[in-house]
Amino acid sequence: MTLYPELTDEKRRELLNSMVLIRTYEEAILREYHADKSPGFDIGAGLIPGEMHLAAGQEPVAAGLGAHLTKDDAMTATHRPHHVAIAKGVRLREMTAEIFGRETGLGRGRGGHMHLFDPETHFSCSGIVAEGLPPALGQAMAFRRGGGDRIAVAVAGEGAANAGAFHESLNLAALWKLPVVFVIEDNDWGISVPRAQSTSVTSNADRGAAYGIPGVRVEENSVEGVYEACGEAVARARAGNGPSLVEVHTLRLWGHFEGDAQGYRTDLEGVPGRDPLPTYKQALVDSGAITEEDYNVMTASASERVEDAIDFAKASPTPDPADALDYVFSEGARS
Amino acid sequence: MSTNIDPARQESAGNAPASAASTGAPVTGAGVSTATDAETTAGGDAIDTGTGRAPGSSATVIEPEPGKRKLSTAKAIQEAIAQEMRADDSVFVMGEDVGPYGGIFSSTTGLIDEFGADRILDTPISESAFIGAGIGAAVEGMRPIVELMFVDFFGVCMDQIYNHMAKIHFESGGNVQVPMVLMTAVGGGYSDGAQHSQALWGTFAHLPGMKVVVPSNPYDAKGLMTAAIRSNDPVVFMFHKGVMGLGWMKKNKRSIGAVPEESYEVPIGKARVVREGTDVTVVTLSLSVHHALDVAEKLEPEGISVEVLDLRSLVPLDRDAIVASVSKTGRLIVVDEDYQSFGLSGEVIASVAERQPQLLSHVSRVCMPDVPVPYASQLEYAVLPTATRIEAAVREAVAK
Ligand SMILES: Cc1ncc(C[n+]2csc(CCOP(=O)(O)OP(=O)(O)O)c2C)c(N)n1
Asked: Most buried among B178, B307, B340, B342, using CB within 10 Å?
């Protein structure tokens, strides 16, 4: 694991801490999701029904990117949104309540785990592949008009880079020199389709050239590598120099969605050794940036925050069926 | 021809005698035909000949006895595709995760093992490109089955669908055919949220140029898929996830049923009375058929007799069957998992209102109200056309 000499130990602890919080969160959702789906597996059953896309293994992208963003920047994400939402600072309790479909959730239980909207942190996500990218452009337009150096970040998987919306968004952002950073999480798989079978280039970063913007690929799933690459892209956007594209070669540690048996997956054998979390932790212990004790404190406090959010969600009321028709419009418009 | 076109008449193909479907136009799998094909004959009574079969194929079997063998709807679809692929090598499948994964909802399980990656193609997440590619291949005489994983994703590729797939035959004056199947998953009930739970068949049916079929059970799924593949027109084949018989979703007991082994067609455009009754007609389709049947079974001991009409196709819409049933019962309830306004339910009622307004002594709708599908199951089940809502509607109808 490459450590970048410029980083302070404090920054490193911050990055690791963020990764730990994300992993703790995803493990807890995993547990809660499967707790009441049996016997067998009924996707619609339990306290968390529906599809569940978890991002274990992709913590470096979220942590390395999130470290450069403030609450006032915008982020659009995908069907796999928890890790980047956490790194963006989305309120954990309200996000969790949304995943549990509760009235206290970010979307009052209407949206669900693929539809998290947090106006406080300007975070949103979409379940339609690549369709989160275009709105980021508009957020960037609004920010530029408002003055200051706020930026918008659009996160998508490598599968999304083959969709029209990706290419249209890159072109438009480049043309209008918008303060946008496009971040592609290449986890090798778009559900069951390996990237080599879906993508004509070996690096999506190369696609930046087609639109005249910088494209960088971070080949190692390392939080510090992501931190470096995103740092440059974010600085460029903040300085008014236009958009950039960063692709990170990351890892989907678990299935595409929960319940995915992954029979198609040819790379599973090597996966445990590629887990970025223990690797980074060990590198920091070895370098003296943290002690084992520091790490234990980190994981304990992450657990505390995550369990608090889950308790909050579970204790929250479910939506009243009588309100099922609310919130279609801001004003009553039903005929 | 008069400019006063009667849409009901235009869509009367579904009322043709079933045997007519086997009297084919002499198309041999080529996508290009002349305007003299039976389908384009004047008068609006044209029949979807559904031929275009490889030369030498035997006479088309229409709705044979179901027999004893039971399959899930997913398996029935796979079997229809496999049989057509064996008979005609212009048939192929493409879509996301249709290869080794076998389709997210198991519509293509095992096909890659028999037919290989040349004919079962996994695509990138580039719906406009691969659906458009399906159109081009169809125009050149192939018979693609293209899967759009969830109908909700039509937003990213609708131009290919409604401005191209659906219009080429018309714009070419009938000179170019697009014999393609757009297969897609529809429906909710398992908390997949507003972007993965919609029915949307009314949207496709609203736009001219596509046939739209929505099977409710394994038997119809196989027969309609076979007919769809053989059709020389684009057919949107919409399967509800809840009727597929998937192991990982709450299963409807009728998602597994008797399916003949032989290849056969269910004619596109013919509704089916799935339960006879005398007090009230429930016109419905897809998963809601099963809810309606459950309600009919439940109310029978109380002496309430419910007729259930499974539309099976939206385009063509079997308006005769609707009117025939309502003329028997005098009461009409439309149950539709699609959004209520501007869609199928209004169209069904209009078919009766235009033809036999005096029949409409009672009309009501049990539909998805005009709200995006909510995530939380308490909310989702408040808006889905559940058996509870259907039962209430039936009781209200017969109380009058
Ligand atoms: C337009 C559209 N097509 C297909 C899908 C179904 N789908 C959901 S996630 C996914 C794979 C996405 O792969 P990638 O973008 O690499 O993200 P990852 O899941 O690996 O995080 C697909 C095909 C969708 N949601 N939207």
From this structure: B178
Rounded Cα gap, residues A226 and A207, in angstroms: 18
Relative orientation angle of helices B218-230 and B73-87, to the nearest 10 degrees:
30
- A194–chain B Cβ distance below 8 A for any pair: no
User: Is A102 an interface residue toward B (CB < 8 Å)?
Assistant: yes
Same domain (yes/no): B211, B305: no
Q: Which residues contact B280 (CB under 8 A, 6 or more apart)?
A: B304, B305, B306, B307, B329, B331, B332, B333, B362, B394, B397, B398
In angstroms, the CA B308 to CA B280 distance is 9
What lies within 8 Å, CB to CB, of B297 at 6+ separation is: none
Residues in chain A: 335
Q: Which of B228, B258, B288 is the last residue of a domain?
A: B258
Q: Domain of residue B363: give its range.
A: 272-399
Atom number of ligand 1 nearest to Cα B196: 25
Note which residues in 113-132 of chain A have CB less than 8 A from chain B: 113-115, 126-131
**Which residues make Cβ contacts (< 8 Å) with residue B56, sequence separation at least 6?**
none
Per-residue pLDDT tens for A181-226?
Answer: 999 999 999 999 999 999 999 999 999 999 999 999 999 999 999 9
- Compute the distance from residue A29 Cα to the ligand 1 centre, in Å: 20
Q: Give the count of Cβ contacts less than 8 A between chain A and B.
A: 147
**Pairing between β-strand A189-190 and β-strand A193-194 as defined by DSSP bridges:** antiparallel
Show which of residues 35-54 on chain A sit within 8 Å of chain B, judged by CB atoms.
Answer: 40-45, 49-51
Cα distance from N-terminal residue to C-terminal residue, chain A: 61
ipTM value for the complex:
0.96
The answer to whether position B264 is within a domain reads no
**pTM (whole model) above 0.90:** yes
* Pairwise CB contact (< 8 Å): B190 & A325: no
Tokens encoding B190: 């398992």
Asked whether residue B50 is assigned to any structural domain, the reply reads yes
Q: Could you say which of B258, B280, B300 is where a domain stops?
A: B258
User: Do B330 and B216 share a structural domain?
Assistant: no
- The helices-and-strands tally (H runs, E runs) of chain B is 13, 14
In this structure, the number of other CB atoms found within 10 A of the CB of residue B310 comes to 27
Q: Are residues B218 and B101 in the same domain?
A: yes
Catalytic status, residue B196: yes
Instruction: Write out residues with Cβ below 6 Å of ligand 1.
Output: A 79-80, 127-129, 156-160, 187, 189-191, 252, 256; B 96, 125, 127, 149, 153, 156
**CATH fold for domain A9-316:** Rossmann fold (3.40.50)
Please give the number of the atom of ligand 1 that sits closest to the Cα of A195: 16
State the distance from the centre of ligand 1 to the C-alpha of B152, rounded, in angstroms.
13
